[in-house]
Design goal:
heterotrimer; A mainly alpha; B alpha/beta; C mainly alpha; B: four-stranded antiparallel beta sheet; disordered N terminus; C: mainly alpha; MetI-like fold; two-stranded antiparallel sheet; 2 strands
C-alpha cells in the first residue's frame, strides 16, 4: 500500500485504467477486429476481378488455340473457322510504329527535363503538361490523330492507316516514356556525372555514355510497361487504324489489330466471331502479362 | 501548478522502490542479437539515464520497455520485463494498455498533423479522459514548459512550432495521458542548446510526478538530469558479424561518473572512447 | 540520329576537336529541347484540333448542346445531355464505390495486418489488374459479368422499382454494369496511389500514435490516413479523370442509349462511348457535334487532372 501511494497522480481518477491483460471483448478491440475484417474483405473484392477475368480468358480463349488461329484471317460474318493472324501481325506492327516514335521523343524529352533544364518556367510547363497529357482520355488522342492525319490525308493521300494508328498510340505512350526517363535519370548519383566531367568528358559524352546507361534499368522497365499498355489500347485505333479483314500489304492502309478485333467481334451476333474475340483476348492478355513480368524481371535484375 | 501535486520530496532515497524490473532481457532482430542478458531494476519516481556508444542497444532496450519494438518486423525479446506485477511480454498482455501507462518521447519531434490543442487532446480522449479538456491541455502544456509559446495558437498546426517547441509539445502530449513512466529516446539530439536546456528544466519538473527513463548520447546531460545511470557497451561476438550490446554497470549517476567499478565505464565517462 | 549530327558537325566545321565537341554538345541540347517541346506541341495540337473541329457545332448549337438530349442525325439536331449526364453519373458512382474498396485494400496491404508475402501478392495482383486491356474487360463484362449480376439487379428493381433510379427492368447492357466495370478499372489506380501515400507516412508518426496508446485502427483513422489524405485525394482525382475518359469497356456494356433515362438499370451513354461508336461513320455536322462533345470531355478531364496535380504537388511541401 505504501508503495502505491508514492505514485498517486492528481487526476488519475479522470482516466480509465484497466489491467494490462488483453480483453477481446473491449469495444476498441472488437472495433479493431471489425475493421481488419472489413479491410480484408475489401482486399478480397479487389483481387477477385483479376482472378475471374484471367480464369475466363484462359478457359474461353485457351481452348480455341490452334495453328489456324495464327495462320488464317477472320471468316466473313456467319461462317465458321478462320483465325486472327492478320490482327496479331497488325497489333505488333502498330505497336512497333508507336514505339519507334515514342521512344526517341520521350527519352530525348526526359533527358532534357533531367539533365538540361534549369528548372525554369519552360521545364515546369513541360513537366506539368506531361502530367496533363498522361491524363488525356485515350479516345481523345484518337480524335486528335483523326483530325490531323486521317481527314487531312497527309500521308500519300491515305486516310485510315497503320501509321495513323501508330501515331495515336505514340501520343499515349509519350508521357510515360518521358516520366520514366526523367525519374530514372534523376536516380543516377550526382557523383557519377562529376566523375565523368572530372576526366574531361563533355556533357554530351557524359549523358550518352555514363548517365543514360546507368539509368537503363528503370527506363527499360518503364518503356516495356508503356509498350504493353499501348498494345492493349483500342479507343485510339478505332477510327485511325480502323480494321481490315485481310492480310496487311502496307502501312498506309487500314489495318486489323487484336484489340479492335475484340471490340468488333464481341458485339457481333455470331458465335464464331465471339469465339475469335476470346481467342484474341487470350493472346493479348498473355502478351501483356509476359511484358509485365519481363518489366519486373528487368527491375529485379538491377537490384542484384 | 506544482502545489496541486502531492509532495513526494519526503521519499527516502534509501528505499529502493522498483518501477520496472528487467530480468535477463535479450532482444534480437531476426537472427541478429542487438543486446543481451540485461538485468536491471529501474527505481520509481527517479530519472534513469541510459548511456553508451552507438550500437550498444540502449535505444533498443528503451523501446522494449513499452513494446514499441512490436512495430519492427522480426524483433524479438527474450527474458522478462516486470511492471506493476506483470511480465509485459506475457502473451495475455495488451500492448495498447502497456503504452497507455508507459508513454514515450522520440528522438525526432513527431507532432501529429493536427492542431496543437488536438495533439494533446487526442491521446487523452483515447485514454478515456473524462475531465475538463481545456484545463488538461493547459496543464500539460504548462508542465512541458511550452504553454507561453502555444497559448495564442492552440488551433494552429503542430508543425507551426519550432523544433524545440515541437519536442516539448510531444512531451506535453505524453504527459497528458498521465502515464506512470515516460521513456525518452535521445529527446534533445535534434535540438539546439537553448531548447535542450529548456527540455532539461522540464524534466526536472516532471521528475516529481513520473518515473523517467532517458537515452542520451550526451554525458553532461546524463549528469545534469539523472539520478541513476546505466552504462551499455557493445562487444564483437565470436563468429558473428556485428556487435552485441550488454549492460556494463548500473548505479547512482554520481558513482558512475566519479567512481565507476568497471574499467570500461571509467574509460567511457572520461571520454577515452565512444 | 546523334551519329548523324556528329558527322555533320565534323564535316561542316573542319575545326579542331574541342570546337566540334562544343557543337555536338550544343546540338544535342537543342535536340532534347526540341523533343521535350513535343509534349507542349501535342497538347496544344490536341486542343486546337478538337476546338477547330467543334467550331461549326459550337456556332450552330451553342450552349443548348449541353442541355438538350436529342441526337438526331436526320434532322441534324444535336444535344449531348445524355452523354454528359452519363459520363458524370457513371464516373462519380464508380468513384463512390471504388474509393472505400481501394483505400481499404491499401490499408490492408500497408499496415502490417498480414504477413509480408501476402501483402506483396495482393499488391502484385492489383497491379496486374491494371494491365488487363480495357477491351478485354469489356468482353468479360458482356459475356460473364453482366449475365451473372442480372439477378441481383433484378432484385434491386423488384425492391426499389418505385424509385425512378431503378424503375426499368434490367435487360442487359446499362448504366449499372458500366459502373461496376469502371470500378474494376479504377480500383488499381486508387489502391496503388493510396498504398504509396500510406507507405510515405513517416514511421515516427506511427510510433507517436502508438505511444499515446492508440489501437492499430485508432492510429490508422486518426493519424496515418489524415497524414496521407492529400496524396490519396490526388489519386482519387486522377482516377476520376480516368473514369470519365474510359472508353472501351464502358462502350461495350453501357448500351449506348440515345434517350435520357434516370434509371441506373437502363441503357445509357457517355461522351467517350459516343465517340467510339459514331466517329468512324459520321460526316458533316455530326463530326463537328462529336468534336464538340470531345471538347467537353477534354475540359472535364483537364479540370479534374489539374486539380489532381495541384493537390499532389502541394502535398510534397508537407512531408
Amino acid at each position: 500500500m505504501g508503495k502505491q501511494s508514492l505514485i498517486t497522480y492528481d487526476n488519475t481518477t479522470l482516466f480509465e485504467r484497466r489491467p494490462l491483460h488483453f480483453d477481446p471483448n473491449l469495444r476498441r478491440n472488437r472495433l479493431n477486429l471489425l475493421f481488419t475484417s472489413i479491410a480484408g474483405i475489401f482486399a478480397a473484392i479487389a483481387v477477385l476481378p483479376l482472378l475471374l477475368v484471367l480464369f475466363h480468358v484462359l478457359m474461353q480463349g485457351g481452348r480455341l488455340i490452334s495453328v489456324n488461329l495464327f495462320t488464317q484471317i477472320p471468316p466473313p460474318p456467319g461462317l465458321d473457322e478462320g483465325g486472327i493472324g492478320n490482327a496479331i501481325i497488325g497489333t505488333i506492327l502498330v505497336t512497333m510504329i508507336a514505339t519507334l516514335i515514342a521512344i526517341p521523343v520521350g527519352v530525348g524529352g526526359g533527358i532534357y527535363l533531367s539533365e538540361y533544364s534549369s528548372k525554369g518556367w519552360f521545364a515546369k510547363f513541360v513537366s506539368f503538361g506531361n502530367d496533363i497529357l498522361a491524363g488525356v482520355p485515350s479516345i481523345i488522342s484518337g480524335v486528335f490523330v483523326y483530325g490531323i492525319v486521317v481527314t487531312t490525308r497527309i500521308f500519300f493521300d491515305q486516310s485510315y492507316s497503320a501509321v495513323a494508328g501508330g501515331i495515336a498510340l505514340a501520343v499515349l505512350m509519350l508521357p510515360t516514356v518521358i516520366k520514366t526517363t526523367e525519374e530514372g535519370l534523376k536516380l543516377v548519383p550526382q557523383e557519377l556525372r562529376w566523375g565523368a566531367y572530372g576526366v574531361g568528358a563533355s556533357k554530351f559524352v557524359t549523358v550518352t555514355r555514363i548517365t543514360l546507361p546507368s539509368a537503363f534499368t528503370p527506363i527499360a522497365t518503364g518503356v516495356v510497361l508503356a509498350i504493353a499498355r499501348a498494345a492493349g489500347e483500342t479507343a485510339p485505333l478505332i477510327f485511325t487504324a480502323l480494321f481490315s479483314p485481310f492480310w496487311q500489304e502496307d502501312v498506309l492502309s487500314p489495318i486489323a489489330t487484336m484489340s479492335v478485333l475484340i471490340f468488333n467481334f464481341a458485339i457481333m451476333p455470331y458465335e464464331a466471331q465471339n469465339e475469335l474475340a476470346w481467342a484474341a483476348s487470350f493472346i493479348l492478355v498473355l502478351m501483356i502479362l509476359a511484358a509485365n513480368l519481363l518489366a519486373r524481371w528487368i527491375s529485379r535484375l538491377a537490384r542484384v | 501548478m506544482t502545489s496541486s501535486l502531492p509532495s513526494k520530496n519526503s521519499v527516502d532515497s534509501a528505499v529502493q522502490d522498483t518501477c520496472m524490473s528487467l530480468q535477463n532481457v535479450t532482444i534480437s532482430y531476426g537472427k541478429f542479437e542487438a543486446v543481451k542478458n540485461v538485468f536491471m531494476d529501474i527505481p520509481r519516481g527517479k530519472v534513469t539515464a541510459f548511456i553508451g556508444p552507438s550500437g550498444c542497444g540502449k535505444s533498443t532496450v528503451l523501446r522494449g520497455l513499452n513494446r514499441m519494438n512490436d512495430l519492427i518486423p522480426g524483433c524479438q525479446l527474450k527474458g522478462r520485463i516486470v511492471f506493476d506485477g506483470h511480465d509485459l511480454y506475457d502473451p495475455k498482455v495488451d500492448p495498447v494498455e502497456v503504452r497507455r501507462r508507459i508513454g514515450m518521447v522520440f528522438q525526432k519531434p513527431n507532432p501529429f498533423p493536427k492542431s496543437i490543442y488536438e495533439n494533446i487532446a487526442f491521446g487523452a480522449r483515447i485514454n478515456g479522459f473524462k475531465g475538463d479538456m481545456d484545463e488538461l491541455v493547459e496543464r500539460s502544456l504548462r508542465k512541458a514548459a511550452v504553454w507561453d509559446e502555444c497559448k495564442d495558437k492552440l488551433r494552429e498546426s503542430g508543425f507551426a512550432l519550432s523544433g524545440g517547441q515541437q519536442q516539448r509539445l510531444c512531451i506535453a502530449r505524453a504527459i497528458a495521458t498521465e502515464p506512470e513512466v515516460i521513456l525518452m529516446d535521445e529527446p534533445c539530439s535534434a535540438l539546439d542548446p537553448i531548447s535542450t536546456l529548456k527540455i532539461e528544466e522540464t524534466m526536472h519538473e516532471l521528475k516529481r510526478s513520473y518515473t523517467i527513463i532517458i537515452v542520451t548520447h550526451n554525458m553532461q546531460q546524463a549528469v545534469r538530469v539523472s539520478d541513476q545511470t546505466a552504462f551499455f557497451n557493445a562487444e564483437a561476438v565470436e563468429g558473428g558479424t556485428g556487435k552485441v550490446g550488454y549492460l556494463v554497470e548500473f548505479n547512482n549517476t554520481e558513482r558512475i561518473f566519479n567512481a565507476p567499478v568497471q574499467e570500461t565505464t571509467r574509460d567511457y565517462v572520461s571520454g577515452r572512447f565512444g | 540520329m546523334n551519329s548523324n549530327q556528329l558527322i555533320e558537325a565534323d564535316a561542316f566545321t573542319l575545326r579542331r576537336r574541342p570546337a566540334s565537341e562544343k557543337l555536338i554538345d550544343l546540338g544535342f541540347k537543342q535536340l532534347t529541347l526540341l523533343l521535350a517541346s513535343a509534349v507542349a506541341i501535342v497538347l496544344l495540337g490536341i486542343f486546337l484540333t478538337v476546338f477547330q473541329g467543334a467550331r461549326e457545332a459550337i456556332s450552330s448549337f451553342g450552349v443548348n448542346f449541353l442541355i438538350t438530349s436529342s441526337w438526331d442525325p436526320i434532322n441534324e439536331q444535336y444535344g449531348a445531355l445524355v452523354a454528359i449526364y452519363g459520363t458524370l453519373v457513371s464516373s462519380l458512382l464508380a468513384i463512390a464505390i471504388a474509393v472505400p474498396l481501394g483505400v481499404g485494400t491499401a490499408i490492408f496491404i500497408t499496415e502490417d495486418l498480414i504477413p509480408n508475402s501476402m501483402r506483396e501478392a495482393i499488391g502484385l495482383m492489383v497491379e496486374l489488374l491494371a494491365a488487363i486491356p480495357s477491351v478485354v474487360l469489356g468482353l468479360w463484362a458482356i459475356f460473364v459479368m453482366e449475365p451473372a449480376i442480372r439477378p441481383a439487379l433484378n432484385l434491386l428493381h423488384i425492391l426499389l422499382g418505385w424509385n425512378p433510379f431503378f424503375n426499368t427492368v434490367p435487360q442487359g447492357p446499362g448504366m449499372a454494369p458500366a459502373v461496376l466495370i469502371l470500378v474494376v478499372m479504377i480500383l488499381p489506380i486508387i489502391t496503388s496511389i493510396s498504398r504509396d501515400a500510406l507507405n510515405q507516412v513517416p514511421m515516427e508518426l506511427r510510433q507517436g500514435a502508438y505511444a499515446v496508446g492508440t489501437t492499430r485502427w485508432g492510429a490508422i483513422f486518426s493519424v496515418i490516413v489524415p497524414a496521407a489524405i492529400s496524396a490519396i485525394t490526388g489519386g482519387v482525382m486522377l482516377a476520376l479523370g480516368r473514369a470519365m475518359g474510359e472508353t472501351m469497356a464502358v462502350t461495350m456494356i453501357i448500351g449506348n442509349a440515345l434517350n435520357f433515362d434516370l434509371s441506373l438499370l437502363a441503357p445509357a451513354n457517355t461522351i467517350a462511348s459516343m465517340l467510339a461508336n459514331q466517329f468512324g461513320e459520321a460526316d458533316g455536322i455530326q463530326v463537328s457535334a462529336l468534336m464538340y462533345a470531345a471538347l467537353i470531355l477534354m475540359l472535364l478531364t483537364f479540370m479534374v487532372n489539374v486539380g489532381a496535380q495541384l493537390i499532389v504537388r502541394r502535398l510534397s511541401l508537407r512531408y
